[in-house]
User: Fold this.
Amino acid sequence: MDGGTKVVCVTGASGFIASWLVKLLLQRGYTVRATVRDPNDPNKTEHLLSLDGAKERLHLFKADLLEEGSFDAVVDGCVGVFHTASPAQISAIDPQAEIVGPAVKGTLNVLKSCAKFPTVKRVVLTSSIASVMGTGTPLTSDVVLDETWYSDQLFFEKHKQWYPLSKTLAEEAAWKFAEGNGIDLVSMNPGMVIGPLFQPTLNLSVKFLLNFISGVQTPVVNYAFVDVRDVASAHIKAFEVPSASGRYCLVGQVADGPDTLQILRQLYPTLCLPEFGNPSDSKYQVSKEKVKGLGITFLPLETSLRDTVESLKEKGILKI
Assistant:
């Protein structure tokens, strides 16, 4: 099935995942209502307005996550809503006010708007693997994470990990509200999202990779990598496949710092990369069983890393 004349909404449309989502939805023939904080900021909108099909089927709306009712006009008449907008920052002076509160409140405001309009058949929420893996259980090589795992907010509070906490509490609030208000909700839980970016600004996860390549950041743990194109496709499948339900872990491959550098060295022998020990043997796994049901097969990590680096070169952000 393709989009045909279906109208859908994408919140936070200028973001990394959301930009790809808008691109793929337009390709599939959907009419997309995209919300951005400031429609007059070319950094947020130009890359969207230049997409194929944007002229005919992309409509930009200004909407504020923290303002109840500000999504009503956008959602009215939509058959599907993709809620990707969330504060993407790691540290804050007041984490509750700047990160956690807005993530939860914003999600509830979008869902409250969805509950008002029976045209909305399904809501797809962009959550995170962070709301799956923060249980306090050591992630050793015999561990396989799947959709039945739920993070413990006390674990993140204790370690002052505000972004993972915000994603955990926002997803929890979403499930509670959806169940209480008859909303068909599906949650996407991607890992560290990399891949080519076509928004002009650097997003959190690609910036992390850039810092890592340039040696600013020392990676000491394993990363659950996933390609942004797979994440966007999975969102669309989660809307289109009638049997899709619950949560979906989206992770292509778990790799540590040395693994990642090894791949980059092979791809870019001239790139001056930092040295970080040997690959570790204790890598947890993330089950791909459930997401297979959506027909998603993940791109290899080599492809994602190469396309991320090429994209950063093209934008002049990374000089090789």
